[in-house]
Design goal:
Layout (H helix, E strand, L loop, with lengths): L4 H19 L9 H8 L3 H7 L3 H23 L14 H8 L2 H7 L7 H13 L12 H21 L6 H14 L8 H5 L3
Length: about 200
């Protein structure tokens, strides 16, 4: 007898939930099928009805996270280019606020090193039309690579520090770094020699 679609989806979701519970406790690559089945409350044969192995489950879970982030960006971006300079809007605070711990688990030291390239490949094309760098610039790919690496690196650092500053403060710091570089945070020689 064929299972009802809602039962199938509920079972698949339970395996994914068990995966995220375990990913909070240990490195993703060390999660075993027997742990997943025990945590999910199913047997091994049920697991293999839904996934070929733990890598298949990881890929499924990552696609869920990517879709969630993609939808956040699509909902947040305007349909036309009216947004102008992406770095001078409140878009990033809204996107960062919507990102959940799953993304940070995947990007973290116990996560999947292959996840960040997936994020970049999926999401950078969505924001490129809204950034103040011309695609005609001969260094365009380097500039985009720098900006995206800096942003994701900052996101990971912010998460590792327990999001110790507000989303707005974090976003402003990131925007300043991207637009002005470190010089915006380093006192100039004139400021250093001024009398107090």
């Amino acid at each position: 007898m064929k299972k009802q679609p809602e039962i199938t989806e509920r079972t698949r979701r339970r395996f994914v939930e068990a995966f995220w519970e375990l990913a909070k406790e240990k490195p993703i690559r060390k999660i075993a099928v027997n742990e997943l089945t025990r945590r999910a409350g199913y047997n091994r044969s049920t697991f293999y009805e839904y996934f070929t192995d733990t890598d298949d489950l990881l890929s499924y879970a990552e696609q869920d996270v990517l879709e969630e982030i993609r939808q956040t960006i699509v909902r947040t971006l305007p349909e036309d280019d009216a947004l102008g300079n992406l770095f001078q809007t409140d878009l990033f605070p809204r996107i960062f606020a919507a990102m959940n711990e799953k993304m940070y688990i995947l990007m973290g030291p116990n996560g999947d090193p292959g996840f960040l390239p997936l994020v970049k490949a999926e999401l950078i094309p969505l924001v490129i039309p809204h950034i103040p760098i011309s695609a005609d610039n001969p260094d365009f790919n380097y500039l985009i690579g720098f900006v995206s690496s800096a942003m994701f690196g900052l996101l990971q650092q912010w998460n590792e520090q327990g999001k110790d500053i507000s989303t707005d403060e974090f976003s402003k710091m990131m925007q300043t770094l991207v637009l002005q570089g470190l010089s915006a945070f380093i006192p100039t020689a004139a400021k250093q020699t001024e009398p107090e």
